[in-house]
Give the backbone structure.
Amino acid sequence: MSLAISRSPMPMNEPVRSYAPQSKERASLQARLKQMSGEVIDIPLFIGGKEVRTGKLGQSVMPHRHSHTIAQFHQAGTAEVNQAIDSAVTAQRDWARLPWEARASVFLKAADLLAGPWRDTLNAATMMGQSKTCHQAEIDSACELIDFLRFNVSFYEQLLREQPRSSAGMWNRSEHRPLEGFVFAVSPFNFTAIAGNLPSCVALCGNTVVWKPASTAVYSAHFIMQIFREAGLPDGVINLVTGSGGAVGDPVLESPHLAGIHFTGSTRVFHQMWRMVGDNIDKYTSYPRLVGETGGKDFIVAHRSADPAALVTAIVRGAFEYQGQKCSAASRAYIPSNLWPQVRDRLVAEVEGIRMGDVADFSNFMGAVIDGNSFRTQADAIEQARTASDASILVGGGCDDTEGYFVRPTIIQTSNPSYRTMCDELFGPVLTVHVYDENQWLETLDVVDRTSSYALTGAIFAQDRYAIEQGLDALRNAAGNFYINDKPTGAVVGQQPFGGGRASGTNDKAGSILNLLRWISPRTIKETFAPPRDYRYPFMG
Ligand code: NAD
């Protein structure tokens, strides 16, 4: 019972710690890294509040030192998946009936635990398991996840306050019910914040969840689950089920109780899941909500009036931070002929100077790509470009997986704007550049719009205000997150709601009220205070 119309705390974006030399936070994180690197932990499934061990084990390793195992994790089969579905369905009754403030408090507490005592652990886990530098971990596993947890509560409160008007003699209300059934949250390897947000924002709205993290990010997912538990998340509300995509996904998509999918990952997997939902449509109690944020082929396009220094910085950070493994990472760039000579020279110098290696060495700007598959994808694309008639390697190109999955930041230059790596997502530190005739600005905008099936992020660089407006107009549907004179990465919760269209997803804008709309099913209630007692209308007199 709630006897108040409560106001939730006003959220503020979590300040980013610098980890500068001699800072207390640096010493503390380094100590935690050292301690965790010396352990190999055993990671169970987490179903109905209980740890479940199947004995079918997978290994978590450091991508930058793949001989170093940091965990073994238990993988689910059909029996455990069905157990997780049952426990989610059973838990929903009590969880949905809690006053919204009680559910919100769990996630606000989780945010404070993460901002304080758990910060080093989740940052260290993200560095070790996903090969992020301390800065990339801090903006992801600390700040972005804390922001998601706090801002979603405020968005949810806003949503609950959304009520219809009432004419005289009646009271109309909207009750923002959770979906009937459970939601399947499926998270990618590349953002710990996304892994934490996909199940938690759904649960905040009164839903219960079966959550499957990527096998290469089970290590950080395990600690997220521990934070939720310490914050008081009741049994069965979020059930963590690790295992291969099909082994977990197939039985889940067969369940009549499937009420929604909250997915972030590749376009290919989302297509596959959408198709299976279509095939199973007669089995479900309700139409499942399908929310998927998927791949990208994100662009930077510069006008002849662009500031070359700002452009080069945006390219280097936008394309190579976290080894180009951000869905928003710049992977194709269009540079006008008048700027190319100086942009090329600066780019080559900057990229050659990038330090790459073990992320525990804080002087490195880049770590390794996530696994052997990704390493081979990058290496193959680089090899093809070396021998192609319409492409060449401008800088980088070195690949070495002896110790870790290391791919040097690489720029391919192509004369062909439809060259394969201008169109296909590689999801690694490989940027392809096309130099265009500086007088062909409008034609180039058209090429940018048509080249790839994706429409996630994009940036234009120009000082000329007319050029900026032309870019905004011509590229209206080419990116869901559009940047002017800034890199196309680094969206902040509450500031740049995130998501794209076309093959990049359903554009349900994580980090905004729009996303939460997908996890409720409103009931409209009309109460009439003095109902009529005679069926005859006055016109009949
Ligand atoms: P992925 O598609 O390989 O895996 C995503 C998740 O789906 C994993 O948990 C995986 O185990 C699971 N999965 C695979 N097959 C499945 C099946 N049959 N049933 C159920 N689940 C299944 O993606 P990834 O390599 O982890 O992440 C990289 C991709 O994610 C890139 O394409 C990137 O662009 C995209 N991404 C997009 C956004 C966005 O906001 N648009 C954000 C992050 C990542």
Q: What stands out?
A: The longest helix spans residues 134-160.
